[in-house]
Amino acid sequence: MELSLKGKRALVCGSTAGIGKAIATELAGMGAEVVLLARNEEKLKKEVLELPSEGQQHSYLQADFSNLESLERALLRLEKPIHILINNTGGPPGGPITEAKLEEFQAAFSMHLLCNHLLVQHVKESMITEGYGRIINIISTSVKVPLKGLGVSNTIRGAVANWSKTMANELGVHGITVNNVLPGATATERLSSIVTNKAKKTGQAEADVHKAMESAVPLGRVAQPEEVAAAAAFLASPAASYINGINLPVDGGRTGSL
Q: With the C-alpha atoms ordered 81, 32, 43, 188, is the resulting torsion angle positive or negative?
């Protein structure tokens, strides 16, 4: 089974923390030259030096996904070719959909779907020329079963999933695969903030909130970022050349559907 990514270049979004950082580390360990993309330049400078390397020249781009012009400017500095694109950014704030403001939908749509689309537009031609393309979108299990209290996120994640499937249909002829990884509860800073906020609202102890999350998972625990990264890295590899247009949950079996 061919898993080596030597000679490949990967652009990894949201790569200074959590799942994005774990994916960048995994891809670098498999031999890829990695370009980190995030908004905090100090963190980017630190993380790029910590990536595994056997001669690869890792680099970074600084951009704020809440500003499309910022992303466009950064992508103008992107060196080609790019063989692997990891679309990944933080999820929208929580809250019931009945209370969501129009601007919340607009902001989330731009940060997730429009930024993803802009990124694909910038890398797809080099993927076609190189004869190798892997586009992997880190979304959410809400694509399969909407999650309570995440009205805006449920809506936008579904839109991204259908955008992705359409891309898979159109780019497949070029040998480019487009797939979605759907993390469940994962031990990241975002999960910690969710636990803290829920504890404050309900009066529960944070430990009890966390335990309830774990009890909802058949494997009895939340994921580590590296476990989600392993799934994304496999989809990025030559071994996954015939896997296209799928949603892959990495949730310990929590999602209540196949």
A: positive
